[in-house]
Design goal:
Layout lengths: L9 H10 L1 H7 L16 H16 L6 E5 L5 H10 L2 E6 L2 H11 L5 E5 L12 E7 L8 H11 E14 L5 H14 L8 H11 L2 E7 L1 H4 L1 H16 L1 H8 L8 H14 L2 E9 L6
Parallel strand pairs: 1-2, 1-4, 2-3, 4-5
Antiparallel strand pairs: 5-7, 6-7
Helix pairs in contact: 3-4, 6-8, 7-12, 10-11, 10-12
Bound molecules: S-adenosylmethionine.
The site of S-adenosylmethionine (SAM) has 24 residues, from helix 1, helix 4 and strand 2.
Length: 285
């Protein structure tokens, strides 16, 4: 696992999303995750929704089932799943700014519930969910084994897990770690970036049976040229963006450095993006 040279706490993760809230909503929108391109002709918004649809297909969601969205961001994935698949969704996030916006969705959809809660110290009962999903949140968890153990505990027997994760390539070289992977973890508040092999091992140690792993790196990487372009446009046209970047009190301005690094990390294969699916055996409590 790639570990940043400065430890990253859950409080730092919450602060990252709270401080960068307006920038995330400007640049990414209500979905704070990659897009998925299949034909290459998808619009950016279409690609973002395609990523959720791809996960929903992998889980084979059934109307009325209960899904937990671990690291739910602004709740847009939860709302999409409830609308398109008729599932109930409980979402958790560390960020006060995100929960404020997510809660606004509950008014229009009684199938949604959002809690500001640390997944690693969650209050859910054993066997509460039919599915647990985590879209780009496991990277932020300091204890990856506990992340999987909690998913296992809170799933019903036979329940399914689906995770989209930023991954380090197996056996990364020292220059990749020094110039790309370690700074990406530090600047983006990731306490650790695992490899595919480590994710599989954590899932299996928790008790899951693996269903699959899909490498989607090439299909998602366009996200970063789009984001870099949007940030560049904002910097040229918006004084508040320039002020934020130039202000030494902006603790999370350092994340701007990660945009070109992540773009390059995908191009060099240093970073990967994958969908891991697994299930809790149906004979286990
Ligand atoms: C990259 S954002 C993804 C948000 C959302 N899944 C989406 O796709 O729009 C990462 C999310 O993980 C959440 N997160 C990180 N660590 C967490 C933890 N320990 N417990 C709950 N949420 C966490 C953050 O608060 C944030 O909402």
């Amino acid at each position: 696992m790639i570990i940043p040279r400065e430890p990253q706490s859950s409080a730092a993760v919450a602060e990252h999303y709270d401080e960068l809230d307006r920038f995330y909503r400007d640049i990414w929108g209500e979905h704070v995750h990659h897009g998925l391109w299949t034909t290459g002709r998808e619009t950016p918004d279409g690609a973002v929704e395609a990523l959720i649809a791809h996960l929903a297909d992998a889980l084979a969601l059934v109307h009325g089932q209960h899904v937990c969205d671990v690291g739910c961001g602004y709740g847009a994935t939860a709302e999409w799943l409830a609308r398109h698949h008729g599932v109930r969704v409980t979402g958790v996030t560390l960020s006060a700014a995100q929960i404020g916006r997510a809660d606004q969705r509950v008014v229009g959809s009684p199938r949604l519930r959002f809690l500001r809660q640390d997944w690693l110290a969650n209050t859910f009962e054993d066997g509460a969910f039919d599915h647990v999903i985590a879209i780009e949140s496991s990277e932020h968890m300091p204890d990856k084994q506990r992340f999987f153990d909690e998913a296992y505990r809170t799933l019903k027997p036979g329940g399914r897990l689906a995770i989209y994760a930023w991954l380090a390539r197996d056996r990364s070289r020292s220059w990749e770690e020094r110039l790309l992977l370690e700074p990406i973890c530090r600047e983006g508040r990731l306490p650790g970036m695992g490899t595919e092999a480590e994710y599989r091992a954590w899932a299996e140690k928790a008790g899951f049976d693996m269903d699959g792993f899909e490498d989607l790196s090439r299909r998602v990487r366009r996200t970063w040229s789009l984001c870099a372009g949007r940030v560049a446009t904002k910097l040229l046209t918006r004084p508040d963006y320039r002020r934020y970047l130039l202000d030494a009190r902006s603790k999370n301005r350092v994340f701007a450095l990660s945009l070109p690094r992540i773009w390059l990390a995908y191009r060099t294969g240093s970073m990967r993006y994958g969908l891991l699916t697994a299930h809790k055996p149906s004979d286990r409590a």
